[in-house]
Structure formats: C-alpha cells, structure tokens
Amino acid sequence: MLGADDPRVARAVFTLREAAGYLGLPASTLHSWARPPRGGAQLITCLPSHGREATVPFIGFAEAYVLSAFRRARVPMQRIRPAVEVLSRAIGIEHALASKRLYTDGAEVLYDYAASEHDEELSGLTVVRTGQRQFAEIVRDYLKLITYGDDGWAAALRLPTYTRAEVIVDPRRGFGMPLLVHGGARVEDLVDRFIAGEALIDIAEDFGVPEEEVEDVVRVATRAAA
What is the CATH number of the domain that holds 223? Predict the structure, then answer.
C-alpha cells in the first residue's frame, strides 16, 4: 500500500487549475473529479483546500493523467466514474489509477466488465489483440509515459500536451513542478519570463533550452490560459 506519509500523496504540488492546464483539461472537469457533488466518489486524490494554496499531490496528478487518457478515448464522463470504481474494487487498492497494476491488469478488468454489462461506450477503452485484452491505443500511449517506482507506484510521468518539448513531472525534482528534460528548467519559469516580455531566443539562451521547445511551452501555456 502507498503510505499516507509518502510525499507523493502527502505533499500538494498543484492547484486544480494548474493541474488542468498542464493536462489540457477544462478546470471544471478536474474539479468534478476532485470534489464531486454530494454522494459522488472522489476520482483523484485532492487535499483539503486552504485559500488558493495547492491541493493536488503527485499521485492525484497521476490519477488525473490517466483519466484524461480515458476521456481522450471518447468515453463519456458519466461512464468514467463506474470504470474507476470497478478498477478500484478489482485491483483492490486505493489510488488504483496510479498503480502499475492498472498497466498490467486494468485492460482485462475493464474489458470483462464492459462485456458483462453490455457497455459499448466503456468498451472503447479496450481491444483484443493476439488473444490478449489490451487498452486502446491512446490509453496505452499515455500509460507508457508513466515511470513506475520499485514499489509499483507512479514515480514520474511525461506530459503528452507538448509536441516538441519533452516535459516531465517528477516529485523528486523541481519540487514536483513540470520540468524540461533539455536544460532542466521549470516550465513556469520559462512562461513567467515570456509574460514579462522577454524574447523566446533570450529565454532559450538563458536556460539552455532549444528555442523551439520554449515556443512549445509558451504555446501550451497560452492555450491553457485561454
């Protein structure tokens, strides 16, 4: 089990709005997963809010990352919640979406559940290839970008929202904020410099990051802000 004092679950890194921006999701969507209406199950780990302080720990971000893959597989929002509940029961652990067991066992669980319930919408998450139940390609591509630790829990992940920049989230580096692999700069530092009016080429030179990657980072940040 993932201990309650593990920094990946105990230390908040993102606000809900920040997490939504990095994942390319509407903030309202992430809010509904973290703080559902009365009677609904919480889908991502989120700590109690205190003003505008961060509330989403790394594990919660990883859970939202997986859910964003389910969403991009065109599974309706109302079907995502039952899918998570089934996974949690079958895998038998809390934070199942952030566990390596999701990668190894999740497709079989969801395929069997969708078949038993005749749920055509949920069946879009899985396929059968060479006799094996597998996640659909887009979900599989997301899961491949997660690095799991020796304990079987998500330890780092690469963000797919960037096309040129390689951006990772690693709770052991940069206080858990997104970093560029090339140069090691924090995404928020590059964006702050751009907002302050500095040219892309100057930012690239100062941080040792290729200019096209700085441009990519700014593009994603601008889109998220809009």
Answer: 1.10.10
